[in-house]
Amino acid sequence: MTYENFTVEIDSDGVALITWDMPGRTMNVLSEGSMGDMGAIIEQIAADDAIKGAVLTSGKSAFCAGADLSMMGGSAGGASGDESPEEKTKALYENNLKFNLLLRKLETCGKPVAAAINGVALGGGLEVTLACHYRVVANNPKIQLGLPEAKVGLLPGGGGTQRLPRLIGAAAALPLIQQGTALNPEKALATGIVHKLVEPGAEVAEAKRWVKEEGDAEQPWDKKGYRIPGGDPHSKGGAQVFTIGNAMLRKQGHGNYPALQYIMSCVYEGLQVPIEAGLRIESRYFTKLLMDPRSKAMIRSLFLSMQDLTKGARRPVGPDPSKVSKLGILGAGMMGAGVAYVSARAGMDVVLLDRDQEAADKGKAYSEGLLDKAISRGKSTDAKKAALLSKITATTNYDDLEGCDLIIEAVFESRDIKADVTKKSEPKLVEGGVFGSNTSTLPITGLAEASAKPENFIGIHFFSPVDKMPLVEIIMGEKTSQETLAKTMDYVAQIRKTPIVVNDSRGFYTSRCFGTYVSEGIHMLSEGVDPAIIENVGKTTGMPMPPLALNDEVALDLAYKVRQQTKADLGDKYIETEGEKIIEKMVVDLGRLGKKSGKGFYDWPAEKGGKKKLWAGLRELAGTSKGADDVDVDQLRNRFLYIQALETARCFEENVVTDVREADVGAITGWGFAPWSGGPLSLIDMVGVKNFVEECDKLAQLYGDRFKPNALLRDMAEKGETFYTRFAPGKADAA
User: Fold this and answer.
1) What is the pTM of this model?
2) By three-state DSSP, how is residue 119 classified?
3) Which residue of 110, 221, 306, 722 has the lowest C-beta tally within 10 Å?
4) Helix 170-179 to helix 258-270 angle, to the nearest 10 degrees?
């Protein structure tokens, strides 16, 4: 028999080698076509007496990247077309159960089946191998094995919540599933997920050996007398796993992520029944999750939109592809040092320049520290470290910038300083070279006035720490050319980060919207709300840190200086708030500058591992008068989320951000906007634009004009529109 996505070869010993190799794809995925082929192959294995066992492997460098989430993106979140919600729910359940029962047929086909894992096996790819009776993997540290579904708001829907806990126990399996952790082959072996490691290229031979010499066609959980490792949910040890697990889940997720709770329920309920019933339980929760709008938003933003943008969906079509061979960086502080590391890692020659050699050397040492850490974890070698460091030249000499394709300034947020380094370094660029500013707030058009070629001047805003943060915000000045944009996006692709493109304004997109979150915390402080309540409510929104602690992390004096610069630029148009008076007292009168000085809204520990504490004098300074009985916690939570979403809608109306994908992806990956929502525009759509506008009007009456909805939102509310219908990617701007 022939199949579209697989080949089947039966050797003289009766071992069927099943090679998964989907045509026209760089990776195998679980699609309708591949699952259809898989079902037919399972029937063939079970029915053909000449087949004594089977080995499943991949014809590509990876085994399987998981399910094709683009299919789920359109079906998740509710009914569409002529189907009723009930009909759609039933169809989703039956479709998912079909895959679960397919894998159950594989493990009960009566013949031993081994998985020869030659590359990455994630999500549904790993679930397929878990339905095999034996797993051998190539000992390649780049191979990852895991169930990452929770990271995009889903749960494993191919038996992962049932087979993995039965294989290694709930205590070991739950953290892997809920955190979406991927393991390398050595850790997968130590955890018990795979049976054996072999040298790359020897996986199939070992799998065939097992089938012929040891082949066992029965899974552990199908054997008589099977016991769950660590105990079932009603045993002493097993019960403790779920008691502590639920407490930790509430503490970390604050009820924002239904996938995490459903995973817990799948494992808890599934381990109390035979696996067939457990698979049905998993399919029910998976379906329930797909019908949750939070899951649809997370799949769309964290997978589909992220994928589109990373692949260059917003790159101008005309200009030819470009590559940066030599990069100049002005300023060897934390940001410049991080940019140097990721660029050298991508193969570029980097010139890292600062005012004195000690500062430049310190910037290069940052890369050395990261590499030493990687070596200690077995993720790099001394030779790779030496090769990367050789690509970074730490200097004070502007002549070393000669021949750079791109220069990025990452100096202090001062117009004068930025203008000075621009004039000194720009002549060193190659013809057509790009000059980028890493400013987080100062308008690019104004900074470009110091440039002799403003068409080649652009904003390239990184996020700290650069080596970990996936986003780069590219800012177009009034005169920035499309060719410059294309070259900048090509550079971002070189360093393997996701770009968003925004138009010039004060604070651009990310800094402007992020600022509303930390400012709202200070507004609440100025209203007399207890600092501990502010911080605890901030945590429940899903933001990465509470607002006052985040103010300290960013640095209070930086916020003060930015406001002073803004006040100077806007003159009489600037409106001062009560919250700013608190910042001024903290910085000017008390010298409490934030974490870097060891004191801000918090007292920060000098010793490593110590815990920060809210400053005891903060309540008196802020005039705290409102405790738990005096505030509406839900309203505080909405204030934190809605002020950010509202500012995003204003940015959209003002043409600062022009693509809904960039607005949502940029918010989540740039400043950590509540991932469960899918981003601020997805949040507005989820709440309903009409409801959102009404709630903002109420907040405006209580707390001021900053909550007043803009004209675009009012127009959309009146017409019953959403951002993802009115501004669907590729659709002409209807504003």
Assistant:
1) 0.90
2) coil
3) 110
4) 160
Instruction: Provide the pairing of β-strand 6-10 with 182-183.
Output: unpaired
Distances (CA, A) of 334 to 95, 111, 418, 557, 622: 50, 58, 17, 17, 32
User: What is the average pLDDT across 647-669?
Assistant: 97
Residue 587 DSSP label: I
- Please report where in the chains the tokens 């140097």 appear, as a residue: 340
Query: 3-class SS at 592?
Result: coil
CA distances from 722 to 3, 11, 479 (A): 43, 58, 32
Lowest mean pLDDT among 21-30, 82-91, 166-175, 683-692: 82-91
Question: Fold for domain 326-506?
Answer: Rossmann fold (3.40.50)
Please name the helix (run of DSSP H) or strand (run of DSSP E) that holds residue 239, with its range, or none: helix 236-253
Pairing of strands 6-10, 15-20: antiparallel
- DSSP annotation of 381 reads -
Is residue 155 a contact partner of residue 266, using CB atoms and an 8 Å limit?
yes
CA distance 440 to 472: 11
Q: How is domain 6-291 classified at the CATH fold level?
A: 2-enoyl-CoA Hydratase; Chain A, domain 1 (3.90.226)
Q: Quick check: is 461 catalytic? A: yes
CA-based Rg of the chain, rounded to a whole angstrom?
Answer: 28
Q: In 363-476, which ranges are E strands?
A: 392-395, 404-409, 429-437, 457-461, 471-476
**Peptide bond before 23: cis, by omega within 30 degrees of 0?**
no
- The residue-averaged pLDDT of 469-483 equals 97
Q: Nearest CA to 543 among 683, 706, 723, 701?
A: 683
Place of tokens 């925004």: 502
- Residue 545 CB neighbours (<10 A): 16
- Residue 285: CA count within 13 A, CB half-sphere: 28
Work out the pLDDT band at 71, boundaries 50, 70, 90: low
CATH code of 511-655+659-726, in short, is: 1.10.1040.50
Q: How many Cβ atoms from other residues are within 10 Å of residue 518's Cβ?
A: 25
Does position 493 have pLDDT exceeding 90, yes or no? yes
| Structure confidence by residue, pLDDT tens digits, 260-300 | 999 999 999 999 999 999 999 999 999 999 999 999 999 99
pLDDT in tens, 200-257: 999 999 999 999 999 999 999 999 999 999 999 999 888 888 888 888 888 888 889 9
DSSP 523-551: HHHHTTB-HHHHHHHHHHTT-SS-HHHHH
Which amino acid appears at position 279 of this protein? L
Question: Cis peptide before 465, with omega less than 30 degrees from 0?
Answer: yes
Query: For residue 504, what are the CA distances in angstroms to 219, 507, 671?
Result: 60, 8, 18
- What tokens does 9 get? 């070869």
Report the residue count for the chain: 735
Q: Which pair of structure tokens corresponds to residue 293?
A: 């709008």
User: 447 and 457 in contact (C-beta within 8 Å)?
Assistant: yes
**Cα–Cα dist 730/658, whole Å:** 11
User: Bridge partners of 54?
Assistant: 16, 113
Task: Name, in order, each residue with C-beta under 8 angstroms of 296's C-beta and a sequence gap of 6 or more.
Answer: 73, 76, 77, 78, 290, 678
Residues 6 or more apart in contact with residue 224 via CB below 8 angstroms: none
Q: Which residues contact 599 (CB under 8 A, 6 or more apart)?
A: 591, 592, 593, 615
Q: Which of these is catalytic: 133, 195, 461, 523?
A: 461
Average pLDDT over residues 305-316: 95
Q: Are 353 and 328 in contact (CB under 8 A)?
A: yes
Per-residue DSSP letters for 301-360? IIIIIHHHHHTTTTS-SSSPP---SEEEEE--SHHHHHHHHHHHHTT-EEEEE-SSHHHH
> Which DSSP letter does residue 555 get?
-
Q: Where are the domains of the chain?
A: 6-291, 326-506, 511-655+659-726
